[in-house]
Every structure is written in C-alpha cells, then in structure tokens.
C-alpha cells in the first residue's frame, strides 16, 4: 500500500502537470492568434493607406491587386478584395471571387476607403490567419519554447513544494499512527505534539484527550477494583471471623456477637447496593421516575430524616429556602438519596456544635439545592477529587467511621441522570458546600 506522502506528492505533480500543460497549450495558441491579429491589424492600417494612395494616383482600382501584393518592406498583406458601391467584389481575394455578391454582415465589418474626401470602395479582408514572415514565425517559436521551459521549471517547483507539503501533512499523521499502535498494545497515556491549528491539529488534540481519558479511566477502574476488593474483604473477614469463633467456642453465642455479624452483613449489603447503583448509572440504566415536587418540600423531608441524628451530635440543622421557586421534575426517591448521601458526609465531618444548612435558590438555568457545613473544609487537591469513587480526604479514618467513599459519587450519578450538574466549593477551615443545579422544565 502506498504511503500518504507518496500519494500526496503524486497528486500535487499530477495537478501541477495538468495545469501547466493546459496553460502552455492555451498560451501557445493564444500567442500565435494574438500576434497574428496584431500583425493583421497593423497590415490592415498600412493597406488602407496604400489603397487610398493608389486610387488617388490612378483614379481607379485597375491593377491594384498586383501592385499591392506586398508592402514596401516586402511583407505580405493578408488576402483582401474591394467591394464597389453595389457590394460586388472587384477582384479575387478575401475569400471571394471577382463579381461575387458580398453578404451584408461581411460588408458591415469592412473598412471604407476614402480618396479625395469620397468613399471609393470597401476593404474586405479574409478572416483566416495569414502566414507570417520567417522572422515573425521565428519570434512565435521562441515565445513557445520560452513557455515550454517555464512550464518545466514550474513543474519542478511544484514537485519540490508538493514533496515539502506532503511531508508536512503526513508527519503528524505518522505520529498519530505510531501513538495509536502503542495505545493498542497497552501503552496508555500516549500524547502527540500539536503542530497546527487545522483539522489535523484538531484531530491530534482529540486523540490526546481520548488517550488521557482512557488512561485515567483504566487507572480508575483498576483502583476501583482494588478498592471494591478491600471494601468487601473487611466486613467479610469480620463476619467469617466472628462466625468461626462462635462455632469453635472461642466466643459465646451472645446477642452482642451476633449483632456484630448482623451489622457487618448490613454494611456489606449497603456497599453492594451502592455498587449496583453506580453500575446502573454507568450503563445509563438508572431507573428515574420523575414527578413534580417543590424544592422546599424536598429539603424539608430530607431535613426531617436527620433531625435526631443532628441533635445526638449537637449539630444545628438550618433551612434557607428562597421563595417562590418553581417545581422540579425529578424522581423524589433518587433525589432524596443524593441529598442524604451529601448530608451523611456533612454530618460525619462537622464537629460537635457545628452547623449544617440546607438551601435552595433560583439560578439562570434552573434551581440550585445546596448542603453547606461548618466542618474543616478541603484543600484544593482534595476538592478536585471529592466526587471520585472510594476517595477519602482523611485516609486516617477507619472505614467504618469514614463510610465507603461512594456517597458523593452516587450523588453525582443521580444528578447527571436528571440532566443536572453538581460541584463543590470549599476552603480549608471554612467548611464544604456541595451544590446541585437542576433544570426547570
């Protein structure tokens, strides 16, 4: 298979040669025609003057054809005849025989001949080109050869420019091809230099973005697999350990030991449910059953669920709901799940005596629902990853206290399924605010 460089070079050469051939052909033809027309017009002016002088000297057209077959320099005049006042040819020439009736349209292009202030005839010349002198023919040949050499020079220049442009165009394509092969062999994260702002440059930028996203996705999935295995191993180890200890008689079959097994099994079930929710969201199969609900009612119901929990931890739970706000077309159960996941995170990280605020207000694109706490806040590095799966800003927390690390990731998936957006804002020492923005139908 021929390379694109060779194809481009051959294409440039073919286009250049065809263009140059057409230009040379037209130039050669037009040069001869234009030069012949110039000479013919020049001879015509000389012929009119000579005919007028001849008639003044002789008083008639007798013998004029023989007398004016050539000019004084020996150059031949084009074939001509003279029409009398009745439009008849006086002698052979100009494509007519003596006595022929010259058509009106031919006479219209004829040139009147004046002698002593009177029109004594009409000059009619043949339309076909007349042969030039040897020197004139030599001049035309030299011009044609010059066109030929110019065409050959232009073809060489086209070949050079074509080769240069072909290499310039093909080079980034070859780089993309090599990077694609490397990517297919498992070398992720390939990046190709962007060398232009044209379509190839745009293709390169798209490839680089795809490569980076693919590497990030693969690495995230690897990390997620490892995190899932670790998350599942912890409760399973506790369940198996306590069950075996009870079975072997190491531990008493007391309600307290059975409660530990039940709690770990419940945590394991909750983790599996969370993973299933995320897998459905990734596949675009997360069930959404939208219905009309006002933001105030949604936030009040969520706040009611956390009144007791906030009182136990000595937290103040406030509502800040702007009015009036339009109804939202959302799945109340799924949206409650998203908000409770955010609230779980806020309650877990807000110290005793702190404040959590549930708020809503109108935006240019819809309605915003937010959860703001007075906890320790996050650093910029942690804030950038707060919605990543299994990510914990405080790695020192034990998993039972710190949650599975899937709550905010699930909230993001649920919001995305509703066509909304979610983002977080925070400063270290000033708390965290998670804001959901939903469109209004």
Strand order of the largest sheet: 5-7-8-10-9
Q: How many helices does DSSP assign? A: 12
> What is the overall silhouette?
elongated
Helix content: 55-70%
Number of domains: 3
CATH superfamily heading of the largest domain: Histidine kinase-like ATPase, C-terminal domain
Average residue-wise pLDDT: 81
CATH C-level class of the largest domain? Alpha Beta
Task: Give the helices and strands as they follow along the chain.
Answer: HHEHEEHHHEHHEEHEEHHHEE
The N- and C-terminal alpha carbons lie at a distance of: 56 Å
Largest sheet: 5 strands, mixed
Rg computed from alpha carbons, rounded to a whole number of angstroms: 48 Å
The CATH architecture term of the largest domain is 2-Layer Sandwich
How many strand segments? 10
What amount of the residues lies in strands? Answer: 5-15%
Regions with little confidence, pLDDT below 50 for 5+ residues: 396-400
Task: Provide keyphrases for this structure.
single chain; 441 residues; alpha+beta; Helix Hairpins; Heat Shock Protein 90; three-stranded antiparallel β-sheet; 10 strands
Break the fold down into its secondary structure elements and pairings.
Blueprint: H1 4-58, H2 64-67, E1 80-83, H3 104-108, E2 111-115, E3 118-125, H4 134-184, H5 199-248, H6 255-282, E4 291-293, H7 295-305, H8 307-312, E5 316-321, E6 328-330, H9 332-349, E7 355-362, E8 366-373, H10 380-384, H11 399-402, H12 407-417, E9 421-426, E10 432-439
Parallel strand pairs: 5-7
Antiparallel strand pairs: 1-3, 2-3, 4-6, 7-8, 8-10, 9-10
Helix pairs in contact: 1-4, 4-5, 5-6, 6-12, 7-9, 9-12
């Amino acid at each position: 298979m021929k390379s694109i460089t060779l194809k481009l070079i051959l294409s440039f050469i073919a286009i250049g040669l065809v263009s140059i051939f057409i230009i040379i052909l037209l130039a050669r033809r037009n040069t001869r025609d234009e030069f012949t027309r110039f000479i013919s017009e020049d001879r015509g002016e000389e012929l009119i003057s000579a005919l007028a002088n001849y008639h003044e000297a002789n008083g008639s057209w007798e013998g004029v054809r023989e007398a004016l077959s050539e000019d004084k320099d020996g150059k031949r005049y084009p074939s001509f005849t003279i029409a009398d006042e009745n439009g008849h040819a006086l002698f052979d020439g100009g494509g007519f025989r003596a006595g022929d009736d010259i058509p009106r349209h031919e006479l219209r292009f004829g040139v009147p001949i004046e002698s002593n202030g009177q029109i004594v005839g009409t000059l009619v010349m043949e339309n076909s080109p007349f042969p030039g002198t040897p020197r004139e023919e030599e001049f035309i040949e030299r011009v044609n050869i010059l066109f030929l050499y110019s065409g050959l020079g232009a073809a060489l220049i086209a070949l050079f420019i074509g080769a240069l442009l072909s290499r310039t165009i093909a080079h980034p394509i070859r780089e993309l091809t090599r990077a694609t092969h490397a990517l297919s062999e498992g070398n992720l994260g390939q990046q190709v230099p962007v060398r232009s702002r044209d379509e190839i440059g745009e293709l390169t930028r798209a490839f680089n973005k795809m490569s980076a996203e693919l590497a990030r996705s693969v690495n995230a999935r690897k990390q997620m697999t490892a995190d899932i295995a670790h998350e599942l191993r912890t409760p399973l180890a506790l369940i198996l350990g306590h069950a075996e200890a009870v079975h072997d008689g190491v531990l008493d079959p007391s309600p307290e030991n059975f409660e530990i097994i039940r709690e770990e099994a419940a945590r394991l079930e909750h983790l599996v449910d969370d993973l299933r929710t995320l897998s459905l969201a990734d596949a675009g199969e997360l069930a959404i059953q939208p219905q009309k609900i006002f933001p105030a009612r949604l936030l009040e119901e969520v706040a009611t669920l956390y009144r007791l929990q906030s009182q136990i931890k000595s937290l103040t739970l406030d509502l800040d709901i702007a009015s009036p706000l339009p109804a939202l077309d959302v799945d109340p159960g799924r949206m409650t799940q998203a908000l409770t996941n955010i609230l779980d995170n806020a309650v877990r990280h807000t110290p005793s005596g702190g404040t959590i605020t549930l708020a809503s207000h109108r935006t240019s694109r819809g309605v915003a629902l937010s959860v703001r706490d007075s906890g320790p806040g996050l650093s910029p590095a942690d804030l950038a990853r707060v919605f990543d799966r299994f990510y914990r800003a405080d790695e020192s927390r034990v998993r039972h206290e710190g949650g599975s690390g899937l709550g905010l990731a699930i909230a993001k998936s649920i919001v995305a399924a509703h066509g909304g957006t979610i983002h977080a804002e925070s400063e270290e020492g000033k708390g965290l605010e998670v804001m959901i923005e939903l469109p209004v139908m």
